[in-house]
Structure prediction request, 286 residues.
Amino acid sequence: MPELPEVETIRRDLLSHVVGRTITGVHVAADASRVIRGVPVRVFARRIAGRRIEALARRGKYLLFRFDGARAPVYLAVHLRMTGSLLYRRVVDPPDSYVRAVITLDDGSELRYADLRKLGQMWLVGSPEEAVGALGPEPLDAAFTAAKLRETLSRRRAPIKAVLLDQRAVAGLGNIYADEALFVARIHPLRLANTLSEPEAKRLHRAIRRVLNDALGNRGSSFRDYVDAAGREGTHQLRVKVFRRTGQPCYVCRTEVARIKVGGRSTHLCPRCQPEESDRDVAAAK
Ligand SMILES: [Zn+2]
Prediction:
């Protein structure tokens, strides 16, 4: 599933192409009508046609196209879920596979929404919150501090991996970057969030930002379906430290990377670099 670095890569790719353009038409495939949420497809198409894209933002894993309506702004929110992608093409370009919806722009270009499994979703809403719900802080924003993270974790008696996946705690992390951040921070994924020490929370805060920024620099990770707005794969899957490296040697200590389940999700870790005891327990045992 595309996570923050993948969605942000798509946003940056699209930005200069679509902002200022006017939508001239929308076509949704008959078998993909459930991608459009809240209103019937024909209502969606009628409401979006003729609108000018004023801005393109991102919140968590959501893309947010802003239009200026007659009275108030209107937003098109897009969530790519498992296999969705948003391709920027010319109308005359060759067809792409699994295209479920096409948004035509006034300069001969179009946005093709491709989605093998048709699990992605689009909403036309009056405020971003109507689509995204109660999301936690953006981990790359200045407002996301180590103290803020520690405060969030102190209220959660659940495995730290599960808390990192909870979009209400931190927005935009998924399975790849939660595992990677915990490895970089040397924290076992099953540690209860409220037992993290201050140094551990600081390490985790730094690790989350570092992992996301590194992945952004590599244009995201393409383990299966993710492609950018030009249909190209990212390269961060070649740089991950533990994610889907089960049985391979840890780059730090050569111990085999292990896989466990946390809250039903496959979780990858180095059992030696990420011991189950906290720093505090280790200090007390000495
Ligand atoms: Zn290791």
Notes: The chain has a mean pLDDT of 95. The first strand starts at residue 23 and ends at 28. The CA atoms of residues 205 and 237 lie 22 Å apart.
